[in-house]
Amino acid sequence: MSDLLKLGYSGTSVHQNALNVTGHNIANLDTPGYSRQQAVQQTTTPQGSGEGYYGTGAMTTTIRRISEAFLTQQVRNDTSLAKESETLLGYAKQLDNLLADSSSSPGAVLNDFFAAMESLNDEPDSQPLRSLVLAESQTLVNRFNLVNERYEATNDNLNTQMMTNVDDINRIAIAIAGLNEEIAASSGRGEGTPANDLLDMREEKLRELSEYVGVTTTDVADGTVSVFIGDGFPLVINDEPFKLKAAPGRTDQQALDIYYSDPREGDKMITELVTGGELGGLLKFREDVLNPSINELGRLAITMSETFNDQHKLGMNLNNEIGGNFFRDVNERELAESRVTAYQDNNPNGSLGLEVHITDSSALTNKDYRLTALEGGTDTNTKFTLRDSDGNPVRFTYTDAAGDTVNKSVVTLADLKDENITVEVDGFRLKLPSSAADSVYKGDDFTISPTRTGAKDISREITSGDEIAIASPMRATTASYNTGSLEVISRGVNETFKSASTGGFSGDEPEDPSVFFDQRDGAMRLYDGGVVSDLPDGVKVEFDPAPSSYASGDADMAYDIIDPSTGAVLASGNYTLGQTQNVIPDSWGIEMSLGGMPATGDTVIIDFNTDGFGDNSNGSAMSDLQSEGVIDGGKVTYQDSYAHIAEFVGIQTAEAKVNAESGAIILDQSVALRDGVSGVNLDEEAANLIKFQQAYNASAQLISISQQLFSTLINAVGR
What we know:
Elements lengths: L1 H26 L9 E7 L3 E3 L2 E3 L3 E8 L3 H32 L5 H17 L4 H62 L7 H15 L4 E5 L5 E5 L3 E5 L2 E2 L1 E6 L7 E7 L3 E4 L7 H36 L20 H6 L1 E3 L12 E4 L10 E5 L9 E6 L4 E2 L1 E4 L5 E4 L2 E2 H5 L4 E4 L2 E4 L13 E4 L5 H4 L16 E5 L8 E7 L2 E2 L16 E5 L5 E5 L2 E4 L4 E5 L12 E7 L6 E8 L4 E2 L7 E6 L7 E6 L8 H8 L13 H41 L3 H37 L1
Helix pairs in contact: 1-12, 2-4, 2-5, 2-6, 2-11, 3-4, 3-10, 3-11, 4-5, 4-6, 6-11
């Protein structure tokens, strides 16, 4: 009877445990990360007798946690990838909508601006049309500035979300370390049963962590788990959490970098090693979408400013002045200096007043560059190398004082300071003011961003419609006494220069010798032998000034270009009769093509186009820029360039959408597989409840029967 009582007791105990576990499963049906549990039972040690071995019942050996490590890890990995794609898509869609919106993008306004220019070319003297061009140009500038502001706001949002993510990662790391400690302590007490609920809580924290960053884990014998991010940087070891922090970037203080706080070696920048999760998505968006597109937009703004300015400076405005810059000069000292940023960890005692001047906007790229000092010191003993944003070495185009050009992988501080040496890369020149006391230290780095702030920096320079230089400053007329059929086919100004009243030039100087129009006062001047002199009456092209040198039937006729005020011959040449030919030396700042059959003594007079306001020669040339290739080596127009920017962001957005959708599907499948193994099934648990309840009742009946038998025995003995 005592054996029967023990059997009943063990049965009720085992099945009560099973009922408790089943109830626990049901209660945690919706608990995130909960893994179904199972009470594992086995028979107790049988008792031997002469008749054989009698069973002594059952006991619960452990509470098993139904979990598959591979599926759990797969859920973490897929969560990380899905969150990365989802975050990238969210930001890319914002950028895509911005560039496609006609109310905010520069694309549509580019057309409006050039349409206004076309209208003005039809009526060059019209003040309302000049005001319209002025207004449309300001609208275009405002659109560039607006998009740049949105880019900066997006970058600020990225920084804010990165800091929030880092705080959440640190919070979760602390929680995992605490759970490690509890789990290890539970295992150390020798209770014989695993801390299932603590393990589930830790797994859920790891899954939550994977929403922010990709992680790898390693199980340790004491029950703890080591957590790593990036290229093996430990985030949790045993019960010790390590910290991340988001701080101003090493290369760009406006963009935060991720730093790993090593207790022994200090902070380490690990931005390039962080992948997966929201944080990885933010970094990927910034690197693959935001930075390239803002650089592309800046390149467009710089190219438009430079090319439009270059053409505008070849014209004449309503004030009888040479046209100046229509837009802000891309090589203003402030702008040239802003394109260079020293790395934060450079030696604080160093200084480098480097300037980046745009020399050929058509050769610019959308990349940033890293300039590195190989040695420390000043002047000749300091050497530099250059790499692009992809890490590829870039060679300098080095032109010496003699005009010889070679490619170099290394340049010196002295090279950059020498005015007679040009050091150029991809359409920009690196230049140091010769008076600057520059010094660098070995390992100092500098970020060069030729186009990053182009959309921010663009602004309109002229303030009045009268300043729009539609006319050409060059007038070319045939003399009234000409007897041949000589005619001016075309004329134009190639370059204008600004002389200084004290001698020399303010900025670039023309080739020597050269005739040019002076930006200072519009006058024609001669630069010869290093001396600038006036041409008060312009110049004249006179054919066959020595009649004896020309005979009937000759194919060519000689001509001289003369200063009428002094009679000095400035240049000479031969004209091929009956053909269109430029008769001006290539080194001069003007050109003129003539046609027809000149007679001896025929003359063309070239002078300043005073009051020639009805002329639209330069305005037509400015309008033609809309359809000319000016970007990527002269292959891409303004409008095409903007279309490429919008297309690039659109493609990135479409790709992110595909990745996000597929990532969500894959994650759902992984979660379903995991839940199929570890999830709570109510139907199964309900069946278990009935089964264990019936088993419990049967075991309780054994106890009741044992009690009845015992009572019967006592009563029998008592009689």
